[in-house]
Amino acid sequence: MPATIREVPNPSVRIDHGKCIADKGCRSCIDSCPLDILAFDEGDGKVKMAYDECWYCLPCEHDCPTKAVTVSIPYLLR
Amino acid sequence: METRTLDVDVLVVGGGTAGPLAAIRAKEKDRNLRVLLLDKANVKRAGAIAEGMDSVNNAVIPGHATPEQYVREITIANDGIVNQATIHAYASRSHDMIRKLDGWGVKFEKDGNGDYAVKKVHHMGAYVLPMPEGYNVKKVIYRQIRKVGVEVSNRLTATRLLTGGGGRIAGALALDSRSGDFVVVRARAVILCTGAAGRLGLPASGYLFGTYENPTNAGDGYSMAYHAGAELSGLECFQINPLIKDYNGPACAYVTGPFGGYTVNAKGERFIKSDYWSGQMMLEFWRELESGNGPVFLKLDHLAPETVTRIENILHITERPTRGRFHEGRHTDYRSDLVEMHISEIGLCGGHSASGVWVDEHARTTVPGLYAAGDLCNVAHNYMLGAMVFGEIAGGDAVDFLDGQAHAAIDQDQVEAERKRLFAPLGREEGFTPAQVEYKLRRMVNDYLQPPKVTAKMEIGLRRFAEIREDLERIKATSPHELMRAIEVHAILDCAELAAHASLYRTESRWGLYHHYPEHPERNDAEWFTFVEVRKGADGRPVCFKRPVPPYLFPIDEQDRDAYNRLRIDAPAAA
Predict the structure, then answer these.
(1) Which residues from chain A sit within 8 angstroms of residue B205, using beta carbons?
(2) A73–B211: do the CB atoms touch at under 8 Å?
(3) What's the ipTM?
């Protein structure tokens, strides 16, 4: 199945798909994001930053059980 | 998309700081009640303290301060416009709340004897209790929510309150921002804990979500309370903060001050005596920038390396832990570099300044059965611990309110009107994105409402806001997520208009920069020693009016009255 979610360009939340276990049902980062900007793409099985609404707050990174999430400061503020 | 109906006894809207404590208290008081805690995010990580907190800003601990001293300090810091009964309601419960949190597992700094290690940051007394390991506050509280059996529902954005006969609260309406379901919650009492209006001004970066407040806090509660007929208070007393430039988060002087950090101008000179956040301090900060002495910096480079490491180990793991990444990206090292600061965009926040929904010492709003707590309510300078205490007060009082009260009848006209307003953007073939309208609105807020306040500018602002209100009918959304953003723009617009009306109404200057109105340059106690309130009039337009300041429980000495107006260091401090 092709990808169904278009990731924002230069996402401030990056997922290491080699470490991510979303295919096993983990939704930890998606659940913890206050702005609800992360989504699981049913097409290619990857978690993506679907909205450019990141508060660079870190629950997604801290709650990830495999340390697959890295947050950087959004470009406009960097 | 379906309509779901929930029936509960107590509905708590907002699962950040005040909300969980309100829900826990209500459930503890009567375990037979159905208590539902809603959040537009996930209660586990919702609100201003998702990553914990680095200090309690207002600890009233025996041996360091008394409730009476604290009430006096906040009265003076807020230029006299307080209901001392509410400040005292907090202050007299402050120590008990710290001990309760300590018992639950929240870590506070203690000295060698095991006593709380209180520091002085305020202008007069000592009220700051560091939390160097305060990153786990939310987890600790979440365990208690589960333990007492509070029901939790995430990803529900409450958009309107329901009222029944006699204006009594009947429940709330909400959007499920994942499924797009419309949720009708019938409740006998509602406690609003939706935080500040943090997406009001536009950050200088231009990034909509680069706010000081958690950007989920878009002002929903202000808007909901207003449309339900509640009285809002002090909306002209803006929240404006001294923040790390561009990062737009706290530096944070409460943490660094006790270690020896302080604020300087470009010449490296101190110019304020106290880094405690007040309107008067912000006015001196603004004057320094305007005078050509800026930029303003936080200075830590004189501290011993091990002290800086201790500071980093607090600032880079709690509250806003990406501070370290930001500094790294800018090649700023506290050991050798000053931290550039700036003045934030405006917001509304009861917990930091005093702009919120009017509540009394029982957390009751002016709508029967409706409560407000936390940054949303107008208890001045209440911060995290005050949010928790007022949450508890609201939860307890709401249970008493329920006694003998059946659910108020639901008015189907209210439900259908809200369904129409809420879902309209999904049905449009074309239109503006929610982000476009939000950007323009918040840029106009900066242009016309950011102090110094000017009558002509605020009047133009109101005209622009009226035009943007027409644009609300042209927003298009393609998903439930965008629908949430669209409805947030409605709330932001309400907050902008109400802030402008309240500011125009108070024809004096007060609270330093928060209401700096050069056409009316002086504080005028003869006419304006009063709250300015706003509520929805019979014609649907905002009505401003005065509410007298209740007689003080603890009178203020004449010599102390202006203590917070003497924050500037006039001569350069001795080296």
Answers:
(1) 76-77
(2) no
(3) 0.97
